[in-house]
Prior knowledge:
Elements lengths: L1 H34 L3 E10 L4 E11 L5 E2 L1 H8 L4 H20 L9 E5 L2 H5 L3 H12 L6 E6 L7 H12 L4 E7 L6 H6 L4 E4 L1 H6 L4 H16 L3 E4 L5 H9 L4 E2 L10 H10 L1
Parallel strand pairs: 2-4, 4-5, 5-6, 6-7, 7-8, 8-9
Antiparallel strand pairs: 1-2, 1-9, 2-3
Helix pairs in contact: 1-3, 3-5
Ligand C2E binds next to strand 2, helix 2, helix 3 and strand 6.
Amino acid sequence: NILVAIALLAAIFRIYRADVGKRLQLERELGRAVRNGEIEVMYQPQVRGDGAVTGVEALARWRHPSGTLLSPDVFIPVAEESTLISDIGLEVLRQACDKLEAWSGAAHTRHLRIAVNVSPMQLMDEHFTPSLTAVIRQAGIDPTLLELELTESALSTNTAAIVDKMRAIETLGITWALDDFGTGYSSLATLRQLPVRKLKIDRQFVQEAATQDSAQRLLGKIIEISQVMHMSALAEGVETVAQRDLLIGMGCDHFQGYLFARPMSESMLDEWLTRQ
Length: 276
Ligand code: C2E
Ligand code: CA
Ligand code: CA
Ligand code: CA
């Protein structure tokens, strides 16, 4: 009946409008947050099988004026719908490069690398490469200590253009890691063409491997792929000694997860590093 249909449509429209309104408000607040310096970076250590720290991953947080620390799962997807992702990404890059510069003075930190997440939209922004070059030059850091992470799913569209961009950036000395590997749809043919040094195995595989035999075999195959491709393999979300030992047995060479350390503020990280 037509009246019911109209009422239903009106209700759907009201819900939709409320949603869009909320998103726009979040977008406005986020723009202000970037200008006000509310974007903070936490750092999570990455280690080798023998426990030695090789570097850290930079993870964005939003220090909201209300006092809460907001997770990137809340604001990165909103930022990705506008050019805000480029502003946030650049802010994270700046902080990470400043950190690398601060580390370059001490023997126990000068070799450490920082991995920074890059969104596909941000990568394809024409300002990205010039901004990246400028940030590196301003900080005066060795670009080989900077690693950029792109999620495997970013390769599902626009593959050729993305691969070209990645190659151009590699010539600056920066290395690439493929994030959340195993959850995207990149073909092995694409993988071979990528200027990628490291596969980051999604924590889903790591966590399921303990209980599911098929997941465990899959994990082994993913590590084998990394070896065939001459890439290193980093397992994400390692929470237990059993997971770590299983992964070491399979030939995985890098690890990240709560077993070793949680993401930490800059000052906590420096303390943690002196204790290592
Ligand atoms: P990601 O890049 O896959 O980062 C790893 C996430 O796993 C982080 O969540 C980290 O805190 C969490 N994690 C690490 N070890 C463990 C563990 O042992 N167990 C479990 N359950 N979780 C673990 P976080 O910091 O909340 O970041 C979530 C996502 O937000 C990131 O996933 C990344 O996709 C995105 N993100 C964070 N910072 C940035 C950024 O600066 N730029 C962009 N584009 N995305 C970012
Ligand atoms: Ca990442
Ligand atoms: Ca990941
Ligand atoms: Ca992720």
